Amino acid sequence: MRRFLGSVWHEPPAPDPPQRVWWDWLLTAVLVAGALVEGVLRTDVPGKGVWVPIAVLLAVALLWRRTRPLPAVAVTFATTSVVTLVLGGEQSGLYTMAAALLLPYALFRWGSGREVVLGAGFLLIGLGVAAATSGSVPDAVAGATVLSSSVALGLAVRFRAGARARELDQVTLLERERLARDLHDTVAHHVSAMAIRAQAGLATAATRPEAAVEALRLIEAESARTLVEMRAIVRALRRDRPPDPAHPGSNPGIADVRALAGAGSGGPRVDVAVSGVDDLGPAVGAAVYRLAQESVTNAVRHARGATRVEVRVTADDRSVHLRVSDDGDVGHARAPAPGYGILGMIERADLLGGRCAAGPDPSGGWTVTAVLPRAGSPG
User: Fold this and answer.
1) Under 8 Å between Cβ of 369 and 292
2) What is the DSSP string of 108-175?
3) Helix (H, G, I), strand (E, B) or coil at 208
4) Taking every pair of C-alpha atoms in the chain, what is the biggest distance, in angstroms?
5) One-letter-per-residue 3-state SS of 263-280
């Protein structure tokens, strides 16, 4: 139990709480206006001169519910508890006070462990005061149930967001591993070429000195390419993770992109056109293939009503361009949130210093586009 309480106390706050946006200010304005209107028009609310300002205070506190959840909860529930006791048990009858339920949700959704523990104390004090002064067991039970529901919802959303973040992190790490394995094969090729050139230069240096010079030039070129690939590997593995022996590396390339044309049997036809990439580096060729393969797989599986998938790979002096599009029914075939496959493609392109995007095409269907630096440098 002590270990559990310690882990709860040291739990960090949920990452990236949303900043205030226009509708937060609108909510506060509506609640302030509602409290003032209730104070003027309602005659069945005791102590309106005290409860209306408290309702206004609550509305303002909501602006800090995500970034400062503990102070917002402490100020609101401590104030309402003290005022209830001072007024002899008279509780607020303002409808706008129901917005206080947003504060427990925000506390358990965004707060750190110690904020949650301390804030729970204020919530229990407020609940106890309300139960003691309500004079009705059903009302006390109903209040506890509603408050518990707000807390449970905050915890559930927090847990789901954490699980989603861990899944996305796993996708990112796996894509980095996959890229590093591809780059490892490329580096091994360059190192082997350098070793062969060096051996040839040593063997012919005595009789043909110019052959040794030529070998050194070739070794210099190969070493430059190797350094580029090594930088990409270091960037891809900037977070430590042991290799997975169950998935040995492979070295696909541009030639394999052309083979995707036969991947649509029983589904949409896959047309592939590749031009201007004859001298493309192995690392970039492997990346283009991985992106095209994932895009075609997604289109074949998920593009409802699609009859054709087009894969186009072109290149200029500096960049390689990939475009994969289908003619499916976007309205029924895709969910608005990106899947893990798309996130993996974006991560791979980013690691190589490029970019990748996916979404519905204005002319119909779904389109994936990617631009990679021709040299394959991560920058």
Assistant:
1) no
2) HHH--HHHHHHHHHHHHHHHHHHHHHH--HHHHHHHHHHHHHHHHHHHHHHHHHHHHHHHHHHHHHHH
3) coil
4) 111
5) CCCCCCEEEEEECCCCCC
Residue 309 in contact with residue 264, Cβ under 8 Å? yes
Q: Are the C-beta atoms of 242 and 221 separated by less than 8 Å?
A: no
User: What one-character DSSP code corresponds to residue 365?
Assistant: S
DSSP category for residue 352:
T
pLDDT-based confidence at residue 73 (cuts at 50, 70, 90):
very high
Q: pTM value?
A: 0.55
The pLDDT value given to residue 103: 93
Residues in the chain, total? 379
Distance of alpha carbon 377 from alpha carbon 231, whole angstroms:
8
3-state DSSP: the chain helix, strand, coil percent, rounded to 5? Answer: 65, 10, 25
CA distance 321 to 242: 32
Give the residue ranges of DSSP H helices in 205-253: 209-236
What is the band of 280 on the pLDDT scale with cuts at 50, 70, 90? Answer: confident
Question: Do the beta carbons of residue 291 and residue 260 sit within 8 Å?
Answer: no
- Six-digit token string for 276: 């201007």
Tokens of 337: 């949130």
User: How far from 368 is each of 330, 358, 360, CA to CA, in Å?
Assistant: 13, 4, 9
Residue 215 has pLDDT above 50, yes or no: yes
Give CA 18 to chain center in angstroms. 14
In sequence order, what DSSP letters do the residues of 10-39 get, joined into one string?
TPPPPSSPPPP-HHHHHHHHHHHHHHHHHH
| pLDDT tens track for 35-47 | 999 888 888 878 8
At 322, which helix (H) or strand (E)? strand 319-326
Specify the amino acid at residue 94: L
Residue pLDDT, tens place only, 139-191: 888 888 999 999 999 999 988 888 887 777 777 677 667 766 666 666 666 67
Query: Nearest Cα to 190, choosing from 318, 278, 282?
Result: 282
Sequence-distant (6+) residues with CB within 8 A of 167 are 340
Tell me the C-alpha to C-alpha distance, in Å, between residue 261 and each of 51, 255, 317, 370, 371: 71, 11, 26, 19, 21
